[in-house]
Amino acid sequence: MSLPGGPPEQRPGRLGVGVVGTGRVGAVLGSALRAAGHPVVAVSAISEQSRERAAALLPGVPVVDVPEVVRRAELVLLTVPDDVLADLVRGLADVGAWQLGQLVVHTSGRHGVEVLGPVRAAGAIPLALHPAMTFTGTSLDLARLEGCSFAVTAPAAVLPIGQALVVEIGGEPVVLDEGARPLYHAALAHGANHLVVLVAQAAQALAAAGVPDPGRVLGPLLEAALDGALRAEVPPGPDGVRGPGAVSALTGPVRRGDPGTVAEHLRVLRDLAARTGAVDLPLTYAALARSATQRALAAGLVQPPVAQQLVDALEAGSVPTGRDGDDTAGPGMGPAARSLDQEDGGSGQERGAQPGGTGHDGTGHDSTDHDGTGHDSTGHHDAGEDER
Question: For the whole prediction, is pTM greater than 0.85?
């Protein structure tokens, strides 16, 4: 795809875009593509909110059923929930909707192009483009696309097309292998979604402490912490070795080696849980304090004896389930901490940083709320709209 200068509408290679699912992602990306000179020829919209969003961001674009969107489009943008995507693609293949040479782009973080197998079988071109961003579904998102990273997965021959589309709307393409997408998506969901949970927990505790406006108190602190962590998370050097990364920006009682403070935190959070039912709060604090201790030890930010004292404090303050004193905060971390003492070499990213768990974006990215209330007119699949 060529990207010469001149007004967008006069550039060669303009494609008629059809958007399947005008949720928060679809409406914004459709608008961005139109601003880049690609006319949006049709959209599907099930809910009233999606119709209003389409009218606001894509005024004048016809709202039609899903097969008709595909029939009219040279580039089909599938912005539907991850769990709906495979059935949608197969259902459209069953009715012969895919066209030879048509570009078919989905925005799922979890999936690569394998899910578009029926598209490829029909002679259409599969592309997976996932923006690492949360969406409000308003024009505010258009400016935020500038510099936003997009995970691009596609067959090698058409990879430049996906990269060019991302560049056209102001994003930065990051090529990602098919098999890496689930882990990529889990990482984004863990970072974005669970950050929101942490803010909610901290705000609840501040409100319980009598702070009238928790958000205002948290704002400067969290912004500084996030900025410091991201600045510290730099690429590997010329020798390929990674530094300690974001954990080097760690502050607070773990970094200072204050086990008494950690124990007191757990005590008051357990009291709050008993009063309010917010049992997740002390559990989350304990789990993340353990992780902070492991990573700080691995990065050389705390010494082994101090790390053991922190772990001991966490174990002493572990949160019972109410079932004969079982400990829901997990097994003791003493052996784990001692095993870290014996490791040598490597960075904090490589030691004590065990990947695990899964996430599900819009923003893993899918920080996603879904409007999956309807079915398309074919009856073959749910064309729920992605409300990331």
Answer: no
